């Protein structure tokens, strides 16, 4: 048992003893009364531990800690616990653009106790993946549960680029002998799609710098390791924009972000095909029964209405997901068709 667990057990034991101290001993004597109280504490402790082993929900996050998905899942998990009535275990399995975590989900039991949080882009661009990404749908495919979060994309200039706005960035990209370096969270992510759509429409060339998640790339952006970064409108990123460490050039969303009223959307700048937001959702293992998917979808939608979750989503300028599992699957298919003609090579 680790120190934290021992501390928690000690606190419970002190509580039991304090509670017992306010009651008179039974006829059998104080020693017997104290032993009964301690035994009750042991039994009380064993029940939650047994429930944790049997009923915990494993929530695989297919990205490393430190990004927007990490901040979101840390407020979502307690809300899911309250709805489901049992613990939720966050398991970060980042790498390979989400493929590592999704492959882990593909081999999990279809019993409703393992789900994964992922963006939809690995599935919308599956044709470009050569890393054995599990399919979506069908008898052997992962099962969509529901949309969890719509996150506006944010294109920022790092201290390595002296461009006041998006137009100035494009001018520099055309004049430079070497392409601007544009970092994203990985090959086939929303940020990568934005890069490719801007590159195709503008005629400018950029060097793609793929990362394995959002935490490391943000630190490297502040260190001027590249000129451009596709990221998400989230609390940590917004703090650096407000403090002037990063300059917001454009957002990818249906409308301007309230916290960045002077920053245009990519659609306003004439790049409607690049005006993309990140959509995160929950997925279940293959062959998960429809009744289980429905229960998890209902739990997700209820958890998204929890005050702490709503507060986090509003404060980070995002939108909560909603709708059925079928609607989520339909949205993924629409996004796949929208990007089916991008001239990208499998990797």
From TrEMBL:
Gene3D superfamilies: Bordetella uptake gene, domain 1, Periplasmic binding protein-like II. Pfam families: TctC. Belongs to the UPF0065 (bug) family. This is ABC transporter substrate-binding protein. It comes from Comamonas serinivorans.
């Amino acid at each position: 048992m680790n120190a934290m667990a021992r501390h928690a057990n000690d606190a419970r034991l002190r509580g039991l003893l304090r509670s017992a101290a306010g009651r008179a001993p039974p006829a059998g004597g104080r020693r017997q009364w104290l032993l009964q109280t301690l035994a009750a504490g042991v039994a009380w402790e064993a029940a939650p531990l047994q429930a944790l082993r049997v009923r915990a929900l494993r929530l695989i996050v297919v990205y490393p800690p430190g990004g927007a998905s990490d901040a979101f899942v840390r407020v979502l998990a307690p809300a899911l616990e309250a709805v489901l009535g049992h613990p939720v275990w966050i398991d970060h399995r980042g790498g390979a653009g989400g493929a590592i975590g999704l492959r882990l989900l593909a081999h999990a039991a279809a019993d409703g106790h393992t789900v994964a949080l992922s963006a939809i882009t690995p599935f919308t661009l599956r044709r470009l993946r050569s890393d054995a990404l599990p399919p979506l749908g069908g008898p052997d495919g992962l099962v969509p549960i529901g949309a969890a979060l719509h996150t506006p994309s944010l294109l920022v200039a790092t201290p390595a680029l002296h461009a006041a706005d998006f137009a100035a960035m494009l001018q520099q990209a055309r004049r430079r002998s070497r392409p601007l370096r544009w970092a994203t969270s990985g090959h086939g992510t929303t940020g990568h799609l934005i890069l490719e759509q801007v590159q195709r429409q503008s005629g400018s060339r950029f060097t793609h710098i793929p990362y394995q998640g959002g935490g490391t790339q943000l630190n490297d952006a502040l260190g001027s390791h590249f000129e451009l970064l596709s990221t998400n409108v989230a609390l940590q990123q917004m703090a650096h924009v407000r403090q002037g460490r990063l300059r917001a050039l454009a957002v990818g969303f249906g409308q301007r972000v309230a916290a960045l009223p002077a920053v245009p959307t990519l659609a306003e700048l004439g790049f409607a095909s690049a005006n993309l937001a990140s959509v995160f959702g929950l997925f279940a293992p293959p062959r998960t029964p429809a009744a289980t998917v429905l229960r998890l979808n209902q739990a997700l939608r209820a958890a998204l209405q929890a005050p702490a979750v709503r507060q986090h989503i509003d404060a980070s300028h995002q939108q909560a997901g909603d709708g059925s599992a079928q609607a989520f699957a339909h949205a993924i298919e629409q996004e796949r068709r929208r990007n089916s003609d991008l001239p990208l090579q499998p990797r």
